[in-house]
Design goal:
This protein is α+β, with helices and mostly antiparallel strands. It has 4 helices and 3 strands; from the N terminus they run ααβββαα. Helix 2 (about 60-70) packs across helix 4 (about 125-140). The longest helix has 15 residues, at about 125-140.
Length: about 140
Amino acid sequence: MEYHFYGWQTADVPPVAEKYQDIKNPRELYDALTKIWCADTCAPRLRARWSMENQTLGQCSITAFLAQDIFGGEVYGILRPDGNYHCYNVVGDCVYDLTSEQFGGEKLDYTGNPKQSREVHFAKEEKRLRYEKLKEELEKRN
């Protein structure tokens, strides 16, 4: 299958969390999330624009931190014009962004960006709750 998220071709990192051993790589996580992402997990400021055709819209930080739970590594952020950070994952030499499709054909720069902290991101109650909902739904998928 061909994917369209950034880094899909080399996203072969195995899970490090025992709980998620059935998710063999980020592509399999992406497949599972396509059945879970919804307007309720989208960032509130973007919710009016969320659709099934652009289901990764507003899902970046909660998705990146969930991927970090599963595959380890670090979460980095690309500063966007609106002052927010778009989050993505780095595990060793593997860089992948499960929610890059929300930007259409825009090319993002995945070099030299700052690490992101879940403590900072989840200081926003609504974001922590969206992350918990995404995680809970992923765990119920079987």
